[in-house]
Amino acid sequence: MEFPMMLLRLAEWVLYQLLANSYYRAARKMKSYGFHFGYLSSKPPPQPSSFPSVVKYDFESRESQTLVACDIHRVLLRSHSFFPYFMLVAFEGGSIFRAFLLLLSCPVLWILNHELRLKVMTFITFCGLRTNAMDSISRAVLPKFYLENLNLHAYEVLASAGSKVVFTSVPRVMVEGFLKEYLSVDAVVGTELHTVGCYFSGLLSGSGLLVKHRALKDYFGDTKPDIGVGSSAVHDHLFLSLCKEAYVVNNEESKNNFSSVMPRDKYPKPLIFHDGRLAFLPTPSAALVMFMWFPFGILLAIYRILLGILLPYGWALSLGVWSGLNLQIKGILPEKSEQKQGVLYVCTHRTLLDPVFLSTCLAKPLTAVTYSLSKVSELIAPIRTVRLTRDRKKDGETMQRLLREGDLVVCPEGTTCREPYLLRFSSLFAELADEIVPVAINTHVSMFYGTTASGLKCLDPIFFFMNPRPSCYIQVLGKLPRELTCAGGRSSCEVANFIQKQLADALGFECTTLTRRDKYMMLAGNEGIVQQDKRTTKC
After folding, report:
1. What mean pLDDT comes out for the span 228-257?
2. Signal peptide location in the record (predicted)?
3. CA dist 462 to 196, 400, 458, 501, Å?
4. Order of strands across the sheet with 245-249?
5. pTM for this structure?
6. Mean pLDDT of the chain
7. Dmax over Cα atoms in the chain, in whole Å?
């Protein structure tokens, strides 16, 4: 009888030890990692650093020196976790289901160490993903979020050196394009991913996860780089000790110090074009809110679209505002034209819904012309839309005919732009009418962008109306004086440029000479002509 009791007590003691150790390790993780579901922090416990801070860096005579950076997050970026950028790739390049699976993995990621966490996020994000989809995301989606999260102090140190090399444990394909294009980095050494044909397998290559201090030795050999920049974490100190001179980015100071935030006017390159649907950085908590909102957002978008299609202007406007839509209009409403043709409204182009919002606010039917519009968007549009052919003579004749029938809306930029810039205005509209009314339009969204260059354009109105409180600001600037039109002796280019400048001043935007073709060649690799809402299947 005593022997079974001894076995029972022994089993009880072993179980107690296992559970106690497990809870102890979990408690240590919570204390040292400071877990916040909103950010899935991967930072190690803060340790006093033997290296000076980047704010004490001497910028003089650095042009001939070589600088190495120990990773991109926690050093060049202010964020401690790279999870949001994996989520961006999963959502924009994969699907909403892949992104949801990545979100569900958060509790598992929390208990894993840094190496396993990266491997799990890499597998979920990249398994079965096309290589050309990743190329598009790294070029058109990720740079916006990297720039908004860039550490000003670390960037200034990086920019001062003549030669720059970045070593990172995250997949190289996620950061190389941005580092070389925007930060002028000469070489990026990162974790390589295994591919099968045109697809990622989700596994790491044979070399595995990059060990940064070993990669530094392999890259430079016996030569020590002049300057090293890393985080204040202990595991970066070995990397920094291999450099002649080293500086650290104090993550806690950067997090609470607004001086480390990169202002837009100090961006290495202007951010004019970017793509993707998400308008926010998808941290775990933000992504959770998005997925909880998604089914309600779809129903709300359908409701708002039906309001514009089925109800009169007054009712549609009132019920739309009641549903959370924020519409603001101000300015001088134009008088009825005394000529035999309608008024030509010249608008800035932020979304496909700009003419719809203008028609609703003016409470009058308008006709909109467009170069490319999906069949679905054309079908659900509550106003008349007419396609243009890109043949200047034919398009001019079409617009003249439409002006004889009533008022017309034209967006001479030819495509949408999300950032505070105006693209070059086509001068065709100036040759067709003497009664021109410039209209400044700007929109704001908090969750989803209602425009895309490489995605399904038929979903543009739905994504815009899925936002909890989308806003549209409209300012009617008043009819252009006759002496400033072609009838007053001005050339069509002068008229177009004058109106572009007038609208930019009203919105606080900057004028550019970029065109529709520039945008689509950069973001989608095509000229932006919509034929069918199908994704390409080429690698």
Report:
1. 83
2. 1-20
3. 35, 32, 8, 31
4. 187-191, 163-171, 66-70, 227-231, 245-249
5. 0.87
6. 87
7. 113
Distance in angstroms (rounded) separating the CA atoms of residues 528 and 516: 8
Angstrom distance (rounded) from CA 458 to CA 475: 27
Domain range 54-266, CATH class = alpha beta
Residue type, 148: E
pLDDT exceeds cutoff 90 at 30? no
Contact 126, 193 (CB under 8 A): yes
d(CA 348, CA 355): 10
Residue 2, CA distances (Å) to 7, 10, 12, 445 in order: 9, 12, 15, 72
Q: Where are the domains of the chain?
A: 54-266, 293-524
Q: What is the mean pLDDT of residues 299-307?
A: 96
In this structure, what token pair is assigned to residue 441? Answer: 């339009």
* pLDDT tops 80 at residue 14: no
What's phi and psi for 44, nearest 5 deg? Answer: -75, 170
**Between 37 and 212, where is the model more confident?**
212
Cα 80 from Cα 191, distance rounded (Å): 18
Q: 11: exposed, middle or buried (C-beta count within 10 Å: 0-12, 13-18, 19+)? A: exposed
In the predicted structure, residue 163 carries a pLDDT above the cut 90: yes
> CATH assignment of 293-524?
3.40.1130
Distance in angstroms (rounded) separating the CA atoms of residues 478 and 488: 17
The DSSP annotation for 515-539 comes to -HHHHHHHHTSS----S-S------
Q: Choose among 47, 44, 141: nearest CA to 90.
A: 141
Q: Which of 141, 136, 167 is nearest to 67 (CA)?
A: 167
Q: Above 50 in pLDDT, residue 534? A: no
The residue with tokens 């009819």 is: 479
Residue 232, pLDDT score: 83
Q: Which two tokens stand for residue 359?
A: 């028609």
> Kindly report the CA angle at 165 between 159 and 167, in degrees rounded to 5?
120
Q: Give per-residue burial for 207-232: e unless 16+ CB within 10 Å, then b.
A: eebbbbbebbeeeeeeebbbbbbbbb
Would you state the structure tokens that stand for residue 65, as one six-digit string?
């020196």
Q: For residue 490, give every residue at least 6 positions away whose Cβ sits within 8 Å of its Cβ, in sequence order, or none.
A: 430, 483, 484, 498
Residue partners of 515: CB distance under 8 A and separation at least 6? 414, 423, 424
At residue 250 the predicted structure's pLDDT band, cuts being 50, 70 and 90, is: confident
Report helix, strand or coil for 276.
Answer: coil
User: How far is the C-alpha of 251 from the C-alpha of 86, rounded, in Å?
Assistant: 21
Q: Is the pLDDT of residue 124 over 50?
A: yes
